[in-house]
Amino acid sequence: MPALPASLRAPSLRRRMACWLYEGTLMFGVVVLPGLVFGILTNTRHALDNRHALQLLLFAVLALYFGYFWVKGQTLPMKTWHIRVVDRQGQPLRWPRALLRYLLAWVWFLPPLAAMAPFKLSGGEVTVLMGGWIVVWALLSRFQRGQQFWHDVWAGTRLIDVQPDLSRRRV
Asked: Which of 85, 132, 134, 152 is most buried as measured by Cβ atoms within 10 A of its Cβ?
């Protein structure tokens, strides 16, 4: 297989993970208002009341958030880290592919959640299991020819480096 054009090269793993952490921080802002409105409308008094309905709502809110911005090409953290998501040919995503990518991205969390479900693990054990899986999953991208995360490979998407050309800037 010939080398990828420079315009389709993946950003470094370090930049992708920094973007991932920034995205996780912003998720609080994305889910807090819908969660609050849900709690008020359903008169939820205890955190475990209506939790499945709340989880479904937040799953849908996040799908809309990511789908909308991935169809546009970038979320705010992706803009900050000069990363864009495109399809295999370098074209912008359409909604079906963006939603498929969203579903497949849950591989970052579902395996450790499923592994810990039958056990009563302490907070430290959960942190080690989740953190360990995230590190392993991220490092697995190093074994993929295009250095993409496996959920991107499966979804037919890719993260590309869109660093600005600093040589063209006026001083």
From this structure: 85
